Amino acid sequence: MRFTSEQRLDDGVREREFSLGEIPGTLWTPRTAAPVPLILMAHNNGLPKNADRLVARARLSAAAGYAVASIDTPGCGDRPRSPDEERARADFRQAMQAGGPADEVFESFIGPLVEKAVPEWRATLDALVELPEIGGPVGYSGWAAVGIGLAAVEPRIAAAGFFAGGYVPRAQREAARKVTVPLLLLLQWDDEGNPRQLALDLFDAFGSTEKTLHANLGGHLGTPWFEREDGDRFFGRHLR
């Protein structure tokens, strides 16, 4: 892992860009010098790590006393895309404009992206836990598809918060039974393009004995801001 830039933000949070081979990422850490728990934070469907909503969540969680890391998944942000990835994205955009993609379009776009992203997140985690400022359990927050794939194979994940507003491929829906960590699932009841029943079925499928579903009225971008505070309380119970 190589840090490429660093700045101290107004709230005292330290923000550092890093690279791990071809993987670009950002690490936010709080003002304290003591080792702190780590939250891996991924945006739905591979949006870039510098997306405004993700950065705002990351900074607030770091200010609350967590280290937070995010990376760009393959083909996202500044990472190059193959011709196949470009075609899959074009099919995805066309289907969305037509009123919502079918499963096959989602699978061709999201499925390969998740399969590539999970090993990269594990490699990133390997590097992050070696840093002296990071200690204790690890949580995951964000994109459900990647989070399921990661939590199903990564024993260091102690708790996970998922957004139900991103498509989960068949392989990860089946892997949900292997996810047994404490779980918080956020669902927007009127999420356009993401069938509500699929999210409810996914919640049932998780193998966790401690799992909570928060459902709020509104569309895809309408998640209430107080859910971020509830998320910090959830991680506080399981990472501290």
How are the SSEs placed, and which strands pair?
Layout: E1 2-8, E2 14-20, E3 23-29, E4 36-42, H1 52-63, E5 67-71, H2 83-97, H3 103-128, E6 134-143, H4 144-153, E7 157-163, H5 170-175, E8 183-188, H6 196-205, E9 211-216, H7 226-239
Parallel strand pairs: 4-5, 4-6, 6-7, 7-8, 8-9
Antiparallel strand pairs: 1-2, 2-3, 3-5
Helix pairs in contact: 2-3, 3-4
What does this structure look like?
The chain has 240 residues and is an alpha/beta fold. The chain has one domain: Alpha/Beta hydrolase fold, catalytic domain (Rossmann fold, 3-Layer(aba) Sandwich). It is built from seven helices and nine strands. Helix 2 crosses helix 3 and helix 3 packs across helix 4. The model has no long low-confidence stretch (mean pLDDT 89).
Give me some keywords for this one:
globular, 39% helix, 240 residues, 9-stranded mixed beta sheet, 9 strands
Question: Would you give the CATH topology?
Answer: Rossmann fold
Classify the helix fraction into a percent range.
25-40%
Rg from Cα: 17 Å
Q: What characteristic shape results from the CA principal axes?
A: globular
Query: What's the mean pLDDT score?
Result: 89
Number of strands: 9
CATH architecture type: 3-Layer(aba) Sandwich
Strand order in the largest sheet? 1-2-3-5-4-6-7-8-9
